[in-house]
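Next comes the chain:
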Amino acid sequence: MRLLKNHGILTGDDYEQSYKESKHLNIKELIKCDIETIYDRKSRKNIHPGVTLAVHKYFGSIKNFNGLFVLQLKNKKFKVMKKIN
């Protein structure tokens, strides 16, 4: 992240739902048990607990776009992109 220039874009995948949307799951316990993916019956999505927690830790509960997160660096702060063309 420190290599990203101002107005640069940071993207990542395997981010199917936010940590907030996953509160009914014990994300930290799933990570301890080395579970890479799990099917969430409530949301009907396969999720990646490690990615969910890492994104939450660094950026909070941000919006996803079909399993992707997209952020733009503006004046040393990351902003969630509102839409993807």
In short: Residues 12-62 form one domain. The radius of gyration is 14 Å. The helical segments are 27-32, 49-59.
